[in-house]
Specification:
Strand content: under 5%
Structural class: mainly alpha
Helix content: over 70%
Largest sheet: none
Number of domains: 1
Distance between the termini: 81 Å
Order of helices and strands: HHHH
Number of helices: 4
Shape: elongated
């Protein structure tokens, strides 16, 4: 009986993980399609894109990371990438601006 309980628990956790991964993949797809960016708001995303999506609905009520937490992690990662390259962008713009003026 103990093995059955352990197997059920493992199966349930695996299913929950797959649902989180599917939701994360959906967010990355929206990011690639430029329907989502570093300034996107959670409430608008749910209202306009996710409200009836099965990957979002499957996530509701699961233990672990919530859909909003996964979204916030993705947005933070996007902001970090922009911050990392910000100085390079500024330098490039200055160089091109100087070339344009000359």
């Amino acid at each position: 009986m103990r093995k059955e309980t352990k197997d059920k628990t493992l199966k349930r956790r695996r299913e929950e993980r797959h649902k989180r991964e599917a939701f994360d993949a959906q967010l990355h797809k929206l990011l690639e399609e430029r329907q989502l960016n570093f300034s996107s708001k959670w409430s608008l995303l749910v209202k306009e894109k996710l409200q009836y999506e099965h990957v979002y609905l499957d996530m509701l009520g699961l233990p672990g990371s919530t859909p909003q937490e996964i979204f916030q992690d993705l947005i933070k990662a996007e902001k970090d990438v922009l911050k990392k390259h910000k100085s390079s962008f500024k330098t490039l713009i200055k160089v091109r601006f100087r070339l344009f003026i000359e």
